[in-house]
Amino acid sequence: MVSSMKRLIQFVLLLLSILLISGGMISGQSPVLDIGSRLELFVDRYLVDRTEGLTFELQHPVDAGEVLRFDQPWEGAFAGYCTVIEDGGLYRLYYRGLPVPRADGSTSETTCLAESRDGIRWTRPELGLFELAGTRRNNVILADQAPFSHNFSPLLDGRPGIPADQRFKALAGTQKTGLFAFVSADGRRWRKLVDRPVITAGDFDSQNVAFWSESEQQYVSYFRVFRQRIRRIARTTSTDFINWSTPVDMGYGDGPVEHLYTNQTHPYFRAPQIYLGIAARFMPGRQVLTPEQATSVGVNPGYFKDVSDSVLITTRGGDRYDRLFPEALIKPELGLENWTSRTNYPALNIVPTGAGEISFYVQKSYGQPTHRLHRYRLRTDGLVAVRAPWRGGELLTKPLRFAGERLVINFATSAAGGLRVEIQDETGKPWPGYSLDESIEQIGNEIAREVSWKRGSALGGLAGKTVRLRFVMKDADLYSIRFR
After folding, report:
1. In sequence order, what are the beta bridge partners of 84?
2. Which residues of 380-466 form beta strands (DSSP E)?
3. Rounded to the nearest 10 degrees, how much is the dihedral formed by the CA atoms of 253, 41, 48, 385?
4. What is the DSSP secondary structure assignment for residue 106, as one 8-state letter?
5. What is the DSSP string of 331-345?
6. CA 169: distance to chain centroid?
7. Among candidates 353, 258, 266, 243, which has minimal Cα distance to 309?
8. How far apart are CA 179 and CA 219, in angstroms?
9. 72 partner at 20 to 30 Å CA-CA among 244, 271, 305, 323?
10. Is 172 helix (H, G, I), strand (E, B) or coil?
11. What's the confidence (pLDDT) of residue 26?
12. Is the peptide bond before 147 cis (omega within 30 degrees of 0)?
């Protein structure tokens, strides 16, 4: 009996060893990533096995200038919590209107809408839905529904088969009320989905974001919690936008734990498996302006004793953010008006705004008469670059499987620089025809360049096989890759 049990245990251990080896999970091996034909950015190290001589560099968005001044009587110095949605060529900007400081959830708060056809030039539609300041000629979509205008945060629901009258959704509320779910057919006229809060465990006193996750096949929401008096982020999920899971706190791995006032987490529109967050980093009590300087820029006396900037956080689902870069993505610019409390807060979502260009939006001069929204632009996929200096360097991916016939890269080189790609098998041996010596050097600056070898750019029968990609670069930047 003992001998039989011993043989059974040995058999089970052998079977487990075979499974681990076939799955690539033995120590020293990386699991095989099945990336299909998805676009992959280098905002984290998901694809990367090792590098030599290369660095990951956070890029510098360009301030493209003011796009909207919050100067209407129902908007004002304390407008905020902006959301930008691109929908078939129509851009919608949602934001809180608040001309004077009030407690969270006050009746003075409204929800406003601006629209654009290019993400650059914005106008306020005259909706006529509510009377404010003696007129219905305004852009207000929600009023007299405290506390929901405090942090009304809409989304365009990408779930297949969603009813037409629920195409737009939103979460809004405070800790006292919990978060209520709203729906809309046109993004202008809204109603409650159910007459009760759908999420109750959280602090909710900033922007509470949600979206349909294509990769996770469920709704995901990220919102504010306080842990040891630090502003943190929690996550919850749902299959119907009504019943949500018990929230879990998001960790940062080895990244710093800081006050993140808003998280602005959302799938990147070109690579929805990657959730990008341009978060507002808040530094309470870190005062830059003197009282006299605060008076000179006209900031409200309660809003100059802290400073803020914007940082990049990413996640692919689960309870962990990747903070590859603790440095600021958006630093406060020249001018005392940029060093006041709660300025430099980013809007939710990154959107396309031109050929080879993406944009996001940042509030400026919060609590001041000049309060406004600016657009920041980057090259497409250009938040992070894998950078090779003039002396060169290499990147080797983890083992992966792909679908497609061509490898396409988003890259830039100097006139003297270049990039070559070797395709290896899982043992590190080059596939015939795809070695480094057979690779055609890629020189230039393109969003989508097909990589080629002496035999051409077709990848033959490599689709579905386990491969590694070896990038050998000199004075070059690599932003993203995909197979197609």
Report:
1. 93
2. 384-388, 393-397, 400-402, 407-425, 445-450
3. -90
4. -
5. ---SSGGGSSTT-SP
6. 19
7. 258
8. 15
9. 305
10. strand
11. 33
12. yes
Give the mean pLDDT of 455-479: 97
Do the beta carbons of residue 193 and residue 241 sit within 8 Å?
A: yes
- What is the residue type of 208? N
Please report where in the chains the tokens 């990220």 appear, as a residue: 222
Residue ranges and CATH numbers for the domains of the chain are 30-59+384-483 (2.60.120.260), 63-379 (2.115.10.20)
Structure confidence at residue 12 (pLDDT): 41
Quote the tokens at residue 407: 């490898």
Q: Please tell me the distance from the alpha carbon of residue 357 to that of residue 369, in angstroms, as a whole number.
A: 31
pLDDT in tens, 75-121: 999 999 999 999 999 999 999 999 999 999 999 999 999 999 999 99
Number of Cβ within a 10 Å radius of residue 245: 14
Q: Around Cβ 254, how many Cβ atoms within 10 Å?
A: 8
Instruction: Kindly tell me the burial class for residue 48, based on how many C-beta atoms sit within 10 Å of its own C-beta (0-12, 13-18, 19 or more).
Output: middle
Tell me the Ramachandran region of residue 177: left when phi exceeds 0, alpha when psi lies from -120 to 50, beta otherwise.
alpha
Q: Which amino acid is at 163?
A: P
CA atoms within 13 A on the CB side of 253: 13
C-alpha–C-alpha distance, residues 279 and 287, integer Å: 20
CA 384 to each of CA 59, 60, 180, 264, 332: distance values in angstroms, whole numbers, following the listed order: 5, 9, 36, 18, 20
Tell me the mean pLDDT in the region 448-465.
Answer: 96
So what's the pLDDT on residue 31? Answer: 87
The tens digit of pLDDT for each residue in 17-46 reads 433 333 433 334 668 999 999 999 999 999
